[in-house]
Amino acid sequence: MKSLNCATFTDVLRVVRVESIFMRGLPGFSIVGLANTTIKESESRVKAALLSLNFSFPPQKIVINLSPSDLPKSGSHFDLSIALLIALQKHEFDESFYVFAELGLNGEAKSTNSLFSILLFLSNKVKKAKVLVPKDIALKAAMIPNFEVYAISSLDEAIRFFIDEEFAKTCLVNATHPLFEKTIEIGGKNYVPNFNFELDFSDIKGQERAKRACLIAACGMHNIIFEGSPGCGKSMCAKRLRYILPPQSESEVMLAAAYESLNNKNVDFSALRAFRSPHHTSTRSSIFGGGSHTARIGEVALANGGELFFDEFPHFGKQILESLREPLEDNKILISRVNSKTEYETKFIFVAALNPCPCGNLFSKNGNCICSQVQINRYKSAISLPLLDRIDIYVAMDEVRQDDKSTLCSKDMYNDVLRVFTTQKERGQSELNGKLEGSEIERICVLSVQAKDVLNQAISRFNLSQRGINKTLKVARTIADLANSEMIEKAHILESLSFRVRSE
Q1: What is the pLDDT at residue 114?
Q2: Residue 428: DSSP 8-state
Q3: Is a pLDDT exceeding 80 seen at residue 17?
Q4: What does DSSP assign to residue 296?
Q5: Gene3D superfamilies, alphabetically (predicted)?
């Protein structure tokens, strides 16, 4: 028996071992292991491809097993591995390769629509993998770090690859994506910094408190909500926040591209973190993922590692807003359907913007608010207290004044983010401050005596929940990091509390 590696998508990417055996019995060819129609059709494609090379099938029964056998499998990219196991049954070859290609009837090796997605997810699952792929995708695949990629254009070349070492050396594809040539090392790990500030905070006049809040949110990946009159800069702040978020590791870049590829996009690698901004009329399935039969990825999962922005926050449906509580709290979302159950990571920074009232003039010094208290309460009632409790930072934004000036640019803010990011990683944190949980909060968020007194007073005065206490501590930890303080001091706690949402 011989075997090769392949992979398939079910609820997540699964590595599949393709095994073959030639047995005594009536000549035949069968594929077992819960293969769907696409793989069953491989029998005809593989036979035609082998016959085009004048291959003589032995008078034996050929059985191909896709292991694990209880896992449903699909995809025409199994063709090449099946054909190689039949053609090379009498030869010794390296079985550690991952082999992917669809075969034409003339033996041509072709890529498939899902192949790049599979390779991206495989790069997060298996390190230093040796991969054999068609030439039309080889250069793109070679840009994935930690892959040793070999390219062939036909079944004939693939067979020769495994029996001719000199030819195999010529199939190696060396390519590095420009993005991964400019990495920085932090805490023994490579990260990809962003030097693109297409949208710059220097465009925003005034709003110093909002900019300070954005800097704190970016440093720790804290959820943030902006409230203010129309035109005061809420959306401008939200859209520029993406450009100062912490750098991604190489694996995070791969995962972001992999998730984006599931959205049927021709993806490329980017130093910029993901940014998703669904409209308030979007359906629940489009935001959280789903479908009638298979669990498709939604905006919440596509924002993983980046920013999810809800503009006009109260106008989103009540069911959508309440459904946000799970991904915000657990940093993951489970989509269950009859045929599949899929879990996606949702470690994003959540950003929301809303007006103070339906007409938007409640905070205005120049315009008159025409809303009654009943209308204001109804407008804000869509946002429940448990949902607000999951927001780290709240900012009430001022109206723009004529003498407002720009004092901060994104480049300077990003330098501060890099400094704080380095501090957190060198402290041994696997997650940034905003995503700390349980015992990590107690270990990392160390308070001075005065800071403890202030926090205890705030717990009594504002009736903070345990979640609210943890949020306050995590924001204070980021503020302390910005001040280069090893311990959380009184001033840091006070500033953190000033950003808490006040329930009426």
Answers
A1: 87
A2: T
A3: yes
A4: B
A5: 3.30.230.10, P-loop containing nucleotide triphosphate hydrolases
Residue 4 contacts residue 40 (beta carbons within 8 Å): no
Q: Can you give the pLDDT at residue 343?
A: 84
Q: Which two tokens stand for residue 106?
A: 């003339």
Q: Which residues contact 378 (CB under 8 A, 6 or more apart)?
A: none
Supply the DSSP symbol for 287.
Answer: H
| Strand, coil or helix: 205 | coil
Please answer whether residues 390 and 331 qualify as being in contact, where contact means their C-beta atoms are separated by less than 8 angstroms. no
At residue 155, what is the residue type? Answer: L
Tokens found for residue 503: 């329930």
Residue-wise pLDDT tens digits, 203-235: 999 899 999 999 999 999 999 999 999 989 999
pLDDT band at 243 (very low <50, low <70, confident <90, very high): very high
- Please say whether the beta carbons of 85 and 65 come within 8 A: no
Interhelix angle 466-482/208-220, nearest 10 degrees:
100
**Rounded alpha-carbon distances, angstroms, from residue 259 to 114, 119, 197, 291:** 12, 12, 24, 17
- State both tokens at 48: 């035609």
Are the C-beta atoms of residues 313 and 351 closer than 8 Å to each other? no
Categorize the per-residue pLDDT at 504 as very low, low, confident or very high, splitting at 50, 70 and 90: very low
Contacts of 51 (CB under 8 A, 6+ apart): none
Are 138 and 149 within 8 A, CB to CB? yes
Task: Give all domains of the chain, ordered by start, each with its CATH number.
Answer: 2-175 (3.30.230.10), 196-401 (3.40.50.300)
Measure the CA–CA gap between 99 and 111, rounded to whole angstroms: 11
Amino acid identity of residue 457, one-letter, is Q
pLDDT digits (tens, 9 = 90+) for 300-338: 999 999 999 999 999 999 999 999 999 999 999 988 776
